[in-house]
Design goal:
The protein is of the alpha+beta class. It is built from 9 helices and 11 strands. Strand 5 and strand 6 form a beta hairpin.
Length: 296
């Protein structure tokens, strides 16, 4: 069964915020196979998303069955959306021009919480490293390659709270023992030797960019955001629905949940510009509901 897709027609290798889900057999095999950017992309490079709702998605759609509904959604449009209310205690319905959208309420809150945690950890400009530390003496074994990367990017690694010294003399083609005396703790989770090695490889891939963060940091914060977000079945008032959409519009990546999957779908078009569809009578297709629930 086809699922909604992001049509990422923009060009350029810096288009990190675009997310794509396949359709047809690919979608059936891996409906959530999306690319999550390893680092947040600067706002200057953000592009509006192209959303497509396949005909099977909305049988009540006002477009012909042989055509796809294709909509460009910007952050400005998101901020100006008319929020209509909650659907089935699972979705927030909102309207922009003649298109009716449904937002996964769990994914919306998850994105808001993730970016709140990121600001607390990294500051508004992303340059802070507000982590706690565990002190001790841990003997970590690194490959020769990882030990070389540690020497090459020692300042970036130290900025995240790691402290260490290499044990013994260097020998070609042998593993290196590193005595780690301080390890960063993010949201109560202490990073490991494997997390350090993943960080070193990310640094190598970004040529030592100071914007690079340990991949484990995102995983920890996304998990915390997911556990703390509202769930399917939680009832929201009209004011709460509007507040969530307004806060979502302030996010850097408002159209993705914390795990990189889409959180909004165009459901149908309304021919009459002044008509307001009865939100309580909306029916969200079951295959879409099943797709969204994979986030929970």
């Amino acid at each position: 069964m086809p699922v909604p897709v992001f049509d990422t027609s923009g060009s350029g290798s810096d288009n990190l915020s675009d997310t794509e889900i396949g359709s047809g057999n690919e979608a059936a095999a891996a409906p959530c196979a999306v690319a999550l950017p390893p680092q947040p992309q600067p706002l200057a490079h953000w592009r509006p998303h192209m959303l497509k709702a396949l005909p099977q998605l909305a049988p009540a759609c006002d477009v012909p069955a042989t055509h796809n509904l294709q909509v460009t959604v910007s952050k400005e449009q998101l901020a100006a959306m008319r929020v209509l209310g909650q659907v089935d205690n699972k979705f927030i319905a909102a309207r922009a021009e003649n298109v009716l959208y449904v937002f996964d309420q769990h994914a919306v809150h998850e994105r808001i919480k993730l970016e709140t945690f990121e600001r607390e950890l990294l500051g508004e400009d992303g340059t802070e490293r507000n982590v706690q530390h565990n002190h001790g003496c841990w003997d970590w074994t690194l490959s020769q390659h990882d030990a070389h990367l540690l020497q090459l990017y020692d300042e970036q690694v130290a900025a995240w709270g790691f402290a260490w010294h290499v044990v013994g003399a260097e020998h070609r083609d042998t593993a290196r023992h590193v005595c780690v005396t301080r390890v960063p703790v993010v949201a109560g989770v202490m990073l490991t030797a494997g997390d350090l090695c993943d960080f070193l490889r990310e640094l190598a891939g970004s040529n030592g960019s100071w914007c690079t963060r340990p991949p484990r940091v995102h995983t920890i914060l996304a998990s915390k955001a997911c556990r703390g977000a509202i769930m399917f079945g939680d009832r929201l008032s009209s004011d709460e629905c509007a507040d969530y959409i307004q806060r979502l519009a302030l996010c850097r990546f408002p159209f993705q949940c914390a795990h990189g999957r889409p959180n909004v779908y165009p459901l149908l078009t309304v021919k009459d510009a002044d008509a307001v569809p009865p939100v309580r009578s909306l029916v969200v297709p079951q295959h879409l509901l099943g797709h969204l629930k994979q986030d929970l």
